[in-house]
Design brief:
alpha/beta; three-stranded parallel sheet; Rossmann fold; binds nicotinamide-adenine-dinucleotide
Length: 131
């Protein structure tokens, strides 16, 4: 069974949206009715993918954006997202961790450390701001 989602009338901001999982997420949100902002350090690629979504009937723009990646990028995004969400009284954040946020592997301390941090920041923010 495939669940269907209706994001009509809602805005979705996707970082790292010019390729990979970010692009797949942005396209799925647009296909479900959201107006999507594709933000990426490669602004030209993001703009091109946004144009493709618009040509397919969706609503999207592409913008250049440098979040700095992994732990600091997620922290910086949540800082600004929560400000908007608190003032408007609603919103949802989906952060991207990894299997590396749950386990340890030899030679992966830096990546896995940041991905564990993403889970910790997300859980703490959810408890702090959920209400
Ligand atoms: N691909 C996997 O198998 C996998 C598995 C687990 C977790 N993840 C996580 O999913 C996320 C996306 O992974 P992916 O494989 O789709 O990556 P990808 O390399 O395919 O795409 C990453 C995108 O982020 C953009 N980007 C890079 N630095 C940026 C910055 N400073 N500011 C803004 N945008 C920036 C790139 O231009 C690119 O468009 C990452 O957080 C990754 O750790 C991926």
């Amino acid at each position: 069974m495939s669940p269907t989602y209706d994001f009509a009338g809602q805005v979705a901001l996707v970082t790292g949206a010019a390729m990979g999982m970010g692009l797949a997420t942005a396209r799925a949100l647009a296909q479900s009715g959201a107006s999507v902002v594709l933000a990426d350090i490669d602004g030209a690629l993001a703009a091109g993918e946004a144009k493709r979504i618009v040509a397919e009937g969706g609503r999207a723009i592409g913008v250049a954006c440098d979040v700095a990646v992994n732990q600091r990028g997620v922290w910086a995004c949540m800082k600004h997202e929560l400000r908007v969400m608190r003032s408007q009284g609603s919103g949802a954040i989906v952060n991207c961790s990894s299997l590396g946020g749950l386990v340890g592997l030899p030679g992966c301390a830096s990546y896995h450390g940041t991905k564990h941090a993403v889970l910790g920041m997300t859980k703490s923010a959810a408890v702090e701001y959920g209400g």
